[in-house]
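#onboarding

Welcome to the new folks! Below is a worked example of what a typical request in this channel looks like: someone posts a single protein sequence, and someone else replies with the predicted structure as tokens. Don't worry about understanding the tokens yet, we'll cover that in week two.

Example request:
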Amino acid sequence: MLVAVVGATFAYFTATTESSGSASSTEIKTANLGGATVTFKGEDSKYELLDYPGGLGVYGSSATIAKTKGDTDTNNYKATYNLQITYTNGTGTDLDWELYVVDNLLEDALDAQGTTICQKKSESGTAGETKYWYADGTGVSEGPNNDSCTGSAIVKKLTDELSGKKLAFGKLKANGSATITKDTTDQVTLDPTEGENLANRTLETNGTKTKYYYLIVKYPNKPSEDQSKTDAGKNINVSLSIKQDSVETTLAE
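Example response:
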């Protein structure tokens, strides 16, 4: 039985959401030249703390171009493609998302679990209830919102150590299902600082052959709202993929 009681400074559940995220695994054969394929797959970097408010999820994936005839083909191929995010958010809370790209990632992949300072919190309440939520670890100054996980440690790792760039950010709307593409205007903001977005992502067989993408989803803790009533037991599903009909391959100089 779910008791709808909210603490003064945080929301909590006595029942949890169900969350599932992924990067779709797809091999795309480029038909216009027939000389290269693009493979999009999920990496072993899925990390989810979305069962209570304040948590986050990190979903890693990679896009790779390869020549179909291997080294016997001396041509240089360039692939262009668009990314898309598909989601279902059954909760009554808008979720925040950010998408990052890292070029030429070698051995030092993102270890989300080892990097995050996001921790599960609990407090005993009245009538034997225990309140649960997520927030950044104590003793770490990561901004004014200490009732939710900020994801700042993961973003710092991506941008400072792995030279990643933010491509876009936005909302996964409450009680909604949608696919976010380059043409979506009401749930996505393209980051203007780098001139990057979900469209016209590129790979080259003689250049950057693999790019790594990290989708970060944050589940805000709303102290003034009864999330235990609107969110408990609801599903959160999110996936990142290449829009298959967007892939084009040309000969590069």
